[in-house]
Amino acid sequence: MPVRPAEPGLVGRDRQLAAVRAGLVRARAGDTALLLVHGGPGSGKTALLDACAVAVEASVRRVTCGPDVVSAIATLLADAPDRPGTPPSCRYPDHVRTLTATGPLVLLLDDAHRCDPGSVEVLDLLVRRGSGLLVVAAVAAVGGIGARPPGWGVVAPRCQPLDLPPLDLPDVAELVRRRWQRPGDEAFVAACLRGAGGNPLALRMILDRVGNGPPVAGRATAVLAAGCAVLAELLPGRLAQHTEETRAVSEAVAVLGRTDAESIAMLAGVSETVVASAFAALCADGVLGVADLDTLRAALLADLPPARLRWWHARAARLLADAGRPAGEIAAHLLALPEVGEPWMRAILREAAATAPDRDTAACYLDHALAADPVDVPTLVDYVRTAGEADPHTAHRLLRAGLERTTGVRERAELAIELAWLTPAAAGAPSVVPTLAAALADLDATLGVRPTGPDRELRVRGEAARLAAGWTRPPVTAGGPVPAGDTPAERDLLALRAFTDMLTARAADVAAARATAALAEPGTLRWPHAAAAYALAVAGDVPAALTGLDRVLASAGPTGWTRTLAGMLRALVLADAGDAPAAVADAERAVTAMDSVDTARVALATAHVRQGDLAAAVRVLPETDPDVPVLGHPLSLVVRAAAAEDAGDLDGALTHLNRCGAVLTELGVENPLVAPWWVAAARLLAATGRSTAAADLAAEGADAAARWGTGNGRGLALFAAGTVELAQDPKAGRDVLAEAVELLETGAAAWYLALAELALGEAALRTGDRVGARKVFRAAADGAVRCGYRGVAVQARARLVAAGGRVHRVPGGTDTLTHAERRVAELATAGATNREIADRLLITVRTVETHLTSLYRKLGVAGRSALHVAIMERDRS
């Protein structure tokens, strides 16, 4: 007989129905057949019997076995003649022969594992001696597929087993199609299969829970949630019928989250043989091997009483620790305990935090350990280093509380040092300087003049902390011997000393050497290393500075002081080095990373000035003095001066610039390149007829630049001197400005180069050299466009036209691309991924994304697919 598709409502059971029809064929031929349908709860045993009753063309009799059915065979053959004194072994076979004389007879037994033994014996007799009989008995799988069900051992050799495996993906897809009269999205169907584990009953319950909304991918999450709820609802009933040992195994699986027999046996306190038997029983019952392990765990754990769950986790943690398992694995169980009162538990949590995959996980471990012992100094220090930047004020409070309750000299020094490192992030918190000074004085008295080993490292950390505490104040004198940079503490100290050297205009090569040593070793970098990288930029090594800042950003968390500082410093470097769009993007991300840092807004305003958007620059400036005075306050005044000059208020601009100089003096910042206010001030003084004051200011700036000793500094000094000279002697001014341009071209000072070229073009015009002026203005315009200096580009193009030249290109072609964008574009059009581009150019993936965004904007394309064509077309134009 050919196999027909499953009956309506029954899916995935074609093979089983075909076996029933084949048994009926044998019965018609005068033979007998016994089919033992084997499946776990909800696998569709009853539904299969329902389909059998409809599908077979024969006389069908059916019974559901259970406590209320004293004799299944008597119920099935209730019309058998009553013959007093005749045993069942004779009475029922005779009656079956009568019934099958005119056609086959089908007996269906549901819940046959609960059938009475007498009926099983009679059925065995009927199968052995009868003819024209088909018996289909559905039994619950309690010992694994293929195991003999209780009471049916006598007939097992003569029966044909018929298992009901879980539904597969096509089966589930068909059920979904029937339910909604349309195919379900692939993700929706996959979620149904995962949530139900292929169990028909569970699937039906899940579909009932999710309601009648369309079977689309967006509802896959709701399906999985319903799957967890359904499994939790079904599990108690399924587990109740198992032995205590089997239930213990299931709970151990839920707690450990894995199914290897050795671990489960250890936790459950049973042998591996018992575990194997329990697994077989749980698989047959639909507890294991049906739903995915995560769904099963959630359901099992939800059903455990809290006290028992805590007992399991405590036992698991101890056993795993004794077995030498990884700290992270043990910590997952310790987190489930209300407190970790034993020292070994807190030690495990600290170890787990050190190897945690992310800061949030590490902070969670350490926070749990601190809850048990808030003054455990090593744990508190680890917590602050991990989570302090994300929540600096809470970390500040915890450290202060720890200091109040800690008496050990070294321990107090540890806490005071960490408090100092938090100073930049915890804006508005009480000053740490007195606390740190007292702790370090006590430490010096205890350690003596020449400490060694860990004590020496602690003392070096203390000196670095002293500089860190003065981050937002006038530069702290950095005395004492210069460390070699062999340890993390020495590199922290070198980084801060390099930044202090830069602020105080110590020789640029000295500051650069210290910054380079601070950044020399691989590994995690902290916020002082961002300051050191910025010192490198001011010293003239922009590529090394950007590499260092990228490394700091790679080490930083998604938010917090380190990310904000590194991002805003990178923005300042890029703004002057020739990539204003990337500078704006970096500054915006820095503001987002820690919204409370006003100096990040100053960096964003500075980048807007470079782009020529003065209105945006003023709009984003903080209303109050920035929180990092040595950078934010002076630079904010320079931005306000630029806005005032743009509005035609030259006196107002000079007021802001002079105030900038006064602020820098108050702060002890002597480096003329930190905020070159004097360059703009000298130009404005000369333009307003105050040539003597302009010359004096330019000379002072030149002296300071000479002490610092960089080409960019000398170039700025010549730029300032040239603008002053231009007001009195255009020819002499032109010569000085030409020298300034030549010097600035050799460094990464694109912003000041563009301004100097504008001034040089004006000098050429004043001396009557219109051809030379056009050449300079064209170079200024092209360079400004490449750098994203739109305001300067507009001025240069206007002056080019005034000098009799023509603008041949409109902004937006490949001539607007920076060198970095060009390199990224070449690799991207060659098919390299963002990661491959980053590895090739030794930059971060985030930097690649920034360059690509700028490329798309400049070239007017939506993505990579159009990039190659756009570049070719622009180059041909």
User: On the 0-100 scale, what is the average pLDDT?
Assistant: 87
CATH topology of the domain at 14-163: Rossmann fold
The best one-word shape is elongated
Q: What is the correct CATH architecture of the domain at 14-163?
A: 3-Layer(aba) Sandwich
- Report the sheet-strand fraction: under 5%
Helix content: 55-70%
Uncertain stretches of 5 or more adjacent residues: 1-8, 810-814
How many E strands? 5
Q: What is the structural class?
A: mainly alpha
Condensed summary:
With 877 residues, this protein is mostly helical. Helices cover 65% and strands 4% of the residues.
Give a written overview of the molecule.
This protein is mainly alpha-helical and 877 residues long. Among the domains are: 14-163, P-loop containing nucleotide triphosphate hydrolases (Rossmann fold); 167-241, no CATH class; 819-876, Winged helix-like DNA-binding domain superfamily/Winged helix DNA-binding domain (Arc Repressor Mutant, subunit A). It contains 43 helices and five strands. It has a five-stranded parallel β-sheet with strand order 2-3-4-1-5, sandwiched between helices. The protein starts with 13 loop residues before the first helix and ends with a helix.
List the helices and strands and how they pair.
Blueprint: H1 14-28, E1 32-39, H2 45-55, E2 59-64, H3 72-76, H4 88-99, E3 105-110, H5 117-129, E4 133-140, E5 160-163, H6 169-180, H7 186-196, H8 200-210, H9 220-240, H10 244-256, H11 261-268, H12 272-284, H13 293-302, H14 306-322, H15 327-334, H16 343-354, H17 359-372, H18 377-387, H19 392-405, H20 409-421, H21 433-447, H22 453-469, H23 488-503, H24 508-518, H25 527-538, H26 542-555, H27 561-577, H28 580-593, H29 598-611, H30 614-620, H31 632-646, H32 650-667, H33 677-687, H34 691-708, H35 711-728, H36 730-745, H37 750-766, H38 770-787, H39 790-802, H40 819-829, H41 834-841, H42 845-859, H43 867-876
Parallel strand pairs: 1-4, 1-5, 2-3, 3-4
Helix pairs in contact: 1-2, 4-5, 6-7, 7-8, 7-9, 8-9, 9-13, 10-11, 10-12, 10-13, 10-14, 11-12, 14-15, 15-16, 16-17, 17-18, 18-19, 18-20, 19-20, 20-21, 20-22, 21-22, 22-23, 23-24, 23-25, 24-25, 25-26, 25-27, 26-27, 27-28, 27-29, 28-29, 28-42, 29-30, 29-31, 30-31, 31-32, 32-33, 33-34, 33-35, ...
GO cellular component, one term: cytoplasm
Protein name: ATP/maltotriose-dependent transcriptional regulator MalT
Organism: Actinophytocola oryzae
